[in-house]
């Protein structure tokens, strides 16, 4: 699978992007035979429609994709991708109807429409290839698409083939591709290296827990990405019901997201010093599994009372965040499929995030709109700090009451970052239904927005 643009060519099929509002005017400019064919196909410029008009030799001579109305475009994204799959085989070049502002995101959407998860079954490829529209940075868009494809592949792979060793190998492959350095601390060495909560959460599984630590870049500001790598989450001794366990292969979505983002950064050569930390574990059930009411001591020295073994993600992230903070980078960002409360709050399509830095918020909100990668700011609400303080220990990993679950989880994580600017993303990492450029399955969230925000945020 290659998510890349077609080479420019005089033989590329002209592609018109036609909105419903402009359809009548555009149609009048076409030949009589083309008008007849377009009318017969019922093409009106509605979003997701596509039509190809044959030339004298029977091959497509021109094509059009519907761009809908301004209102319909606000209710979705990647509108060209919706029509790309309906076009016959060929290379297509946009000749009108697409603004310079929309061209990058629509071009990205077209590439992402070509994504197929074909590890276990052959999939029908996208037949229509796009020539990069004028003014679009093709190399950058292809890097974004490749990073997103990596994230999707990792999430879509079941835990039988994506356990902690496999996630480690994926990180090693990425490091080798870009000349990054990587180190891994696994098994009992986690205790020797003062990463006790990562060890505790993962010790019950047959495949040993580990911390993956990747470095790239020698100059520029320091950015550390921390991704939750729970390769499967049974809930531990607080066992999940079957309905909640069914999608838990995606509980390493935070790790998948930061690896995809790392590819975007390295492939485009951003001038920064990148560190990626992934605590990779399975939350399994065994005789040595950690228990409710256990009290754990973290790398930072804070003690944590375990009131639900199914709130394990914040435990492994806590040790990784404490390690990240010791280096005092210019920015720490954590990404995790952390709480169901976040899904209740904003649904599957938005990536909720937490940050108290107005510069980070401003840069991210601007880039999210430009990248068609929606995010939503949630509060680090200090008044809820008392909810994560059980009394018997410094912190409670699962406060009672059920209120503000994503906020209390974020506040818990913030306790482990005291020296560095910090932002946290509580993503879903899963597309529940097919949508243009986003087939059902694993999906990246927030990563393109973060990538585009790094320039103004870190003054690259």
Short description:
It is elongated and about 80 Å long. β2 (50-54) and β3 form a beta hairpin. The longest helix has 19 residues, at 138-156.
Topology:
Blueprint: E1 13-19, H1 23-28, H2 32-40, E2 50-54, E3 60-68, H3 70-74, H4 79-84, E4 90-96, H5 103-112, E5 128-130, H6 138-156, H7 164-178, E6 181-186, H8 189-192, H9 196-202, E7 210-216, E8 222-227, E9 229-233, H10 242-245, H11 253-267, E10 273-283, E11 295-297, E12 303-305, H12 313-326, E13 331-336, H13 340-346, E14 351-354, H14 358-370, E15 375-378, E16 395-396, H15 405-414, E17 422-426, E18 430-431, E19 441-442, H16 447-458
Parallel strand pairs: 1-3, 1-4, 4-5, 8-10, 8-13, 9-10, 12-16, 13-17, 14-15
Antiparallel strand pairs: 2-3, 6-7, 7-10, 11-12, 14-17, 18-19
InterPro entries: Leucine_aapep/pepB, Macro_dom-like, Peptidase_M17_C, Peptidase_M17_N_1
GO biological process, one term: proteolysis
Pfam families: Peptidase_M17 (PF00883), Peptidase_M17_N_1 (PF21337)
| Cα-atom radius of gyration | 24 Å
Mean pLDDT: 97
Q: What distance lies between the first and last C-alpha atoms, to the nearest angstrom?
A: 32 Å
Largest sheet: 9 strands, mixed
How many DSSP helices?
Answer: 16
Uncertain segments of ≥5 residues (pLDDT<50)? Answer: none
Q: What is the SS-derived class?
A: alpha/beta
CATH T-level topology of the largest domain: Aminopeptidase
The amount of helix comes to 25-40%
How much of the sequence is in beta strands? Answer: 15-25%
Pfam families: Peptidase_M17, Peptidase_M17_N_1
GO molecular function: manganese ion binding; metalloaminopeptidase activity
GO biological process, one term: proteolysis
Family: Belongs to the peptidase M17 family.
């Amino acid at each position: 699978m290659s998510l890349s643009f077609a080479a420019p060519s005089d033989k590329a099929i002209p592609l018109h992007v036609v909105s419903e509002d402009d359809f009548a005017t555009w149609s009048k400019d076409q030949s009589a035979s083309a008008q007849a064919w377009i009318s017969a196909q019922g093409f009106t410029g509605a979003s997701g429609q596509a039509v190809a008009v044959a030339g004298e030799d029977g091959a497509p001579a021109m094509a059009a994709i519907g761009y809908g109305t301004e209102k319909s475009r606000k209710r979705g994204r990647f509108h060209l991708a919706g029509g790309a799959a309906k076009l016959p085989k060929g290379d297509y070049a946009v000749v009108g109807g697409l603004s310079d502002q929309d061209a990058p995101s629509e071009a990205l959407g077209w590439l992402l429409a070509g994504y197929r998860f074909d590890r276990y079954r052959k999939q029908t490829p996208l037949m229509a290839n796009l020539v990069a529209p004028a003014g679009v940075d093709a190399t950058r868009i292809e890097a974004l698409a490749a990073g997103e494809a990596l994230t999707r592949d990792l999430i879509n792979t079941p835990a039988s083939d994506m356990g902690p060793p496999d996630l480690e190998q994926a990180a090693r492959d990425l490091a080798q591709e870009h000349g990054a350095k990587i180190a891994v601390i696994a098994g009992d060495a986690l205790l020797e290296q003062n990463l006790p909560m990562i060890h505790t959460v993962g010790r019950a599984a047959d495949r040993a827990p580990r911390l993956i630590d990747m470095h790239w870049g020698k100059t520029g500001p320091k950015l550390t990405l921390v991704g939750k790598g729970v390769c499967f989450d049974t809930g531990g001794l607080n066992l999940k019901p079957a309905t909640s366990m069914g999608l838990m292969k995606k509980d390493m979505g935070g790790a998948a997201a930061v690896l995809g983002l790392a590819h975007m950064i390295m492939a485009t050569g951003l001038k920064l010093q990148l560190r990626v930390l992934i605590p990779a574990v399975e939350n399994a059930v065994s005789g040595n599994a950690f228990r409710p009411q256990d009290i754990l001591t973290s790398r930072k020295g804070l003690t944590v009372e375990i009131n639900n073994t199914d709130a394990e993600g914040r435990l492994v992230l806590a040790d990784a965040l404490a390690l990240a903070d010791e280096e005092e980078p210019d920015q720490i960002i954590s990404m995790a499929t952390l709480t169901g409360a976040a899904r209740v709050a904003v649904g599957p399509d938005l990536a909720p995030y937490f940050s108290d830095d107005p510069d980070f918020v401003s840069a991210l909100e601007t880039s999210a709109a430009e990248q068609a990668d929606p995010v939503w700011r949630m509060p680090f609400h200090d008044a809820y700090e008392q909810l994560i303080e059980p009394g018997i220990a410094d912190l409670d990993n699962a406060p009672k009451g059920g209120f503000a679950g994503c906020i209390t989880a974020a506040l818990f994580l913030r306790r482990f970052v005291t020296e560095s600017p910090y932002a946290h993303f509580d993503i879903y990492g899963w597309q529940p239904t097919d949508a243009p450029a986003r087939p059902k399955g694993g999906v990246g969230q927030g990563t393109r927005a973060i990538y585009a925000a790094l320039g103004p945020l870190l003054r690259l």
